[in-house]
Protein 1
Amino acid sequence: MVFPTGSEELINVGMGQTAVGQSPTKLTAVLGSCLGICLWHPRSKRGAMAHAVLPSSNGKPTQLPGKFVDTAIRYLCDQLALFGVPSDELVAKLAGGACMFVTSGPLQIGDCNIEKALSCLQEMRIPILAQDVGGTKGRRVTFELATGRLLVQVVGETLKTL
Amino acid sequence: METAFSVGSHRPDRVAIFRQLLTSATREASVAMSRWVGDVIDLTLEEVRAVPLEEVCTTLDLSEKVSILVVLTLRAPLGGQIILHFDEPNARALAKALIATGEHSSGGWSELEQSALLETGNILGCAYVNALSRMIDHELIPSAPVLVCDFAECVLEQALAEQLQYSDVVVVSRTRFTQGERNLNWWVLFLPGSQLQELMDQSLRVALPRPR
């Protein structure tokens, strides 16, 4: 877990990592098949990002809650709750889950990550305001906690704002 | 019966065994590459490491710029990836040298340039895989090569997903290229799948005298 110092700061959230922060901090990640899960609380302008690699922990305990989509979402909510943010006031944005190349097995990890996030967020009743997921290209994303905007840069395309 | 160790474990001697195997495979790949480009290209195994997930990208110092990658996936269940990684100027230079027609498409990649890079990945990957197959006495079958122009980290994420199902630590090996005195900014990343790691480990371990 990465905690910012409070001033405007750009924090890189690496594979399997999570970060929480408050305006004006920005959280950034480079996403291929991994899923960037962004939770935001509009009133306090606090938010969090997870850079999840795999869909499910299958109920096993893990030292890296950000590694799995299911544990990451729960962990982000718990961390935000420590700052007094109720999970029923959170909104979500998602990016990533691409298929960068065809693999030999039937499992397409990007799709599985997306599917898991949609079901976990639905189960926790966290509305998804926007998503830019799937496809075959990587994404560099920046989550602005001041505005809740998620900026998505895909190679060779114009910057998208979610 | 002695149990070697579980999938996903990363004892230091295991990394040493991988280094020994991959050094031999790298020698054969050097010969194949030199034949293909018509000049002496040396491949040197730079590192074989077991790296915690959260440190992979910083350890490999992957460029934040767009990279050119040729990816070969080893057929399941052994699994793994061989990834030939260039920065764009080096990929352009290699393609230009190989096709020798002066053809160059500004911005995108012409079909001929793409073919040249794919074939390079194929030749290199097959030499590597053939050597490794012989050493572990098990057939490894690579996929057709795939060309990806994107952030290297994005490709790495997907390539490591299988290993990460079993462990928070991944095995990565990186090979560099030199031409004479000159370091080329080309790299081969080899990311063996979990079952392939088991096989690599066991194949060499049985060939070595047992410690008393």
Protein 2
Amino acid sequence: MSQRGKFALTLASLTRAMSGALTSEIVARRSGLLQSLDPRVRLAGLLMLVVAVTLSHRIVVVVALFAVAILLGLASHVSMAILAKRVWLTVLAFTGVIALPALFLTPGVAMFRTPEGFPSITSQGLIAATFLITRVETAVTLTTLLVLTTPWMHILKALRAFRVPQEAVMMLAMTHRYIFLLAETANQMFESRASRTVGVLDARQQRRVIARSAGVLLSKSIEFSNEVFLAMQSRGFRGDAKVLVDFRMQSSDYLALASCLVVAGSAVWLGRS
Amino acid sequence: MHIPDGYLSPSTCAVLYGGAGAGWYVSLRRMKRNLNVRMVPLISVFAAFSFVVMLFNLPLPGGTTGHALGVTIAAIVLGPAGAILATSLAVAIQALFFGDGGITTLGANCFNMAVVGSLVAYVVYRAISANAALASRRRVVAAAVAGYVAVNAAALLTAIQFGVQPLLFRDAQGVPLYAPYSLGVAVPAMMIGHLLIAGVAEAAISAGLVAYLQAADPALLRATSGLVHEASPMQPAPAGSLRRLWITVAFLMFLTPVGILAAGTAWGEWSASRFATAEGRARIAASSNHQPVPDKMPAGIERLATVWTAPIPAYAPAFIKSPHFGYFLSAAFGVGLLILLSFAAQAYVQRARPAGSGE
């Protein structure tokens, strides 16, 4: 791959991260079932379902929870194409590759007769691979629904409501803001470097360029943190952060929370081995 | 290395949340105590920096590309506590905001990459770069080795967590319920990629960053260099914390008999005599997913069992009748021995350190 190709790869990673975040902001503004609920209910409810997915010992129960996730997505106007691209195909490609050898490596009863010396697919292996893929697909779909339908600041406020330490929430909020600023800065650095580069750099030179770019970014980050600190101090920051929690639970929120509790509880009960 | 939801059982996730939680608690306590509210934006910016650095694709020997974790440079600039927080923040945002890594497995990912990664990187960097000048080439080598070892330590832990799943969590038909591969498959599968690609990427970016900082901003390397006596922002104030540390150690020593309450035997820690009795073999089989246990002691164990005879076998000194008191006495003896060794090491380092190197 040429150096432009490799710079382009880094640029593409940076751009993909930013565009993914933009998609979330757009979906979170739509009106839908999940968007209408209190963020605390969304967080607690979807997490209960994720835990139920991991606790269930039956594939049919996990598939039923996957159907629930799809229904929630449709009711929240989340595009199935986004879910397919961001979750289902990605998870299938990643977990599928991991699960594939389990078909042959899991000890058990051979399903087909294979020629001498060739590994055979075992029924236990087939179930184990299917289990892993359906479980991961379902859990990641549910967490992606949370991410897609909830603005980041609301997730943070909801975390605070669940007694996550104030400092941690404050740092998460600041980190999230800086990521976009630093990604933008890194993007510009790589673009300008690529536009100035003539000829071909070998891999060693490319590593040096990237390490120096990372070094410049680090220096800028530290400088920037000092400026931010002075700005915070000038506004009266003394180590305590005030998070404004103005969420109000409606009757529909209580109903949704109870529904999640019933679905998750039933899934755990029915999914016992 | 970011484990998604569904690969680990809930109980494994809970244990690793506990491990990560201990790391977060200690780090936050240190930050609050020394802090310096200045560390809040510094750690946040560093977390953002780690996140962005993970997106950099680094060309590696062999024509492939890899990306770094950024945990090593965080440990070198911020120290272990700051690195644990910054890397955890980056991992949490990847999971909560970008869906990279699971939410039930967030504790596992933070434990592997942030807690263990930071501590290993810090210890290796300090050990190799001890007493070296800020501009020394040894610091660049130390950063590279620290990065390589830290990433591979985190990957090994991840592989072990995958590998124990089929041993511990199967249904009635013997079907693995979570990650399906045993340690024999999970460890090599995970380690090959990290030994050849991810570890090299972390080593290259860490060494490159330290070399850059030596030339451009050496002050950033000072906090964990061991060359300054004044406390760095993330280092604990020694006076009050030492007393609390002694109290904690004493409390933990009193708690050691709790270990007797645990049923069964620790897997893989069987003494040779366990193989000799039917009851011992039954216990080994019970803790090994009912795999067949050899009728007699394996020859290798028999040969090596007598190479070293512990002075206090099984934490039970021969002259003590009460097992609880035996445990407590063993704890006191072990702690005392470690304190003596650390005093000896400290005396040796102080004597070996050339005059003026600490300034």
